[in-house]
Amino acid sequence: DTGVSQDPRHKITKRGQNVTFRCDPISEHNRLYWYRQTLGQGPEFLTYFQNEAQLEKSRLLSDRFSAERPKGSFSTLEIQRTEQGDSAMYLCASSLTDHYGYTFGSGTRLTVV
Amino acid sequence: DQQVKQNSPSLSVQEGRISILNCDYTNSMFDYFLWYKKYPAEGPTFLISISSIKDKNEDGRFTVFLNKSAKHLSLHIVPSQPGDSAVYFCAATVPNTGNQFYFGTGTSLTVIP
């Protein structure tokens, strides 16, 4: 298993554009998490899935943020109408249910110009 | 509102000596705590955890101590090695929330050969 994969590694976009990031979790992991990390801060929880069900999304930063996990496999995180404040590292992690230690991917670094 | 705090942004230790990284939290509902280690350009990797029903957990050179009354936990690394140089995050979760973690801001450890 190659671990958690995130694509792209880097994304530069103009303000107002939409962006979509992909995460491929470890295949047997049924939980998938999205976090955001800004400079000098720790990861900040955004949302998570148990298989294909999105069980928590109230902590998504605004209604411009949405996530999906069709068929309980890979997941996508979309940010619509990007703003400069969205510039950050977006981290995906996966785990087995009730296993506390996640496996994180290397992240997607978003720069909004 | 930062519920998990790491007040030391950086720490330098000589190789072979003990490294002590500290973390404070404010939410008395937290019941499980983790430490993650992060190298540049990589996602955080799980290091060690502790349940709130324990006050100590040890794994090789790494020991985590939990003082619930003080809402404080610490990570001890003995002996420190140059390969331990990384950013260390503590994280905590509330029960029945699907393991959504609150992270501290991190402490950058440098082990000097």
Can you give me a brief rundown of this structure?
The complex is a heterodimer of chains A (113) and B (113). Chain A has 113 residues and is mainly beta. Chain A has strands spanning 5-7, 10-13, 19-24, 31-37, 44-50, 53-56, 65-68, 75-79, 88-95, 103-104, 108-112.
Name a few traits of the molecule.
heterodimer; A: 113 residues; mainly beta; 7-stranded mixed beta sheet; 4-stranded antiparallel beta sheet; 11 strands; 49% strand; globular; B: 113 residues; 6-stranded mixed beta sheet; 5-stranded antiparallel beta sheet
Secondary-structure map with pairings?
The complex is a heterodimer of chains A (113) and B (113).
Chain A: E1 5-7, E2 10-13, E3 19-24, E4 31-37, E5 44-50, E6 53-56, E7 65-68, E8 75-79, E9 88-95, E10 103-104, E11 108-112
Parallel strand pairs in A: 2-11
Antiparallel strand pairs in A: 1-3, 3-8, 4-5, 4-9, 5-6, 7-8, 9-10, 9-11
Chain B: E1 4-5, E2 10-14, E3 19-25, E4 32-38, E5 45-51, E6 56-59, E7 62-67, E8 72-77, E9 86-93, E10 101-103, E11 107-112
Parallel strand pairs in B: 2-11
Antiparallel strand pairs in B: 1-3, 3-8, 4-5, 4-9, 6-7, 7-8, 9-10, 9-11
Describe the model.
The complex is a heterodimer of chains A (113) and B (113). By secondary structure, chain A is an all-beta fold. Chain A is built from no helices and 11 strands. Chain A has strands at 5-7, 10-13, 19-24, 31-37, 44-50, 53-56, 65-68, 75-79, 88-95, 103-104, 108-112. In chain A, the strands form 2 sheets. In chain A, strands 2, 4, 5, 6, 9, 10 and 11 form a 7-stranded mixed sheet that branches. A 4-stranded antiparallel sheet of chain A has the order 1-3-8-7, with no helix packed on it. In chain A, a hairpin with a 7-residue loop joins strand 9 and strand 10. Chain A starts with a strand and ends with a strand. The mean pLDDT of chain A is 93. Chain B is mostly beta strands and 113 residues long. Chain B is built from no helices and 11 strands. Chain B has strands spanning 4-5, 10-14, 19-25, 32-38, 45-51, 56-59, 62-67, 72-77, 86-93, 101-103, 107-112. In chain B, strands 2, 4, 5, 9, 10 and 11 form a 6-stranded mixed sheet that branches. Chain B starts with a strand and ends with a strand. The mean pLDDT of chain B is 95. Chains A and B meet through strand 4, strand 5, strand 9 and strand 10 of A and strand 4, strand 5, strand 9 and strand 10 of B.
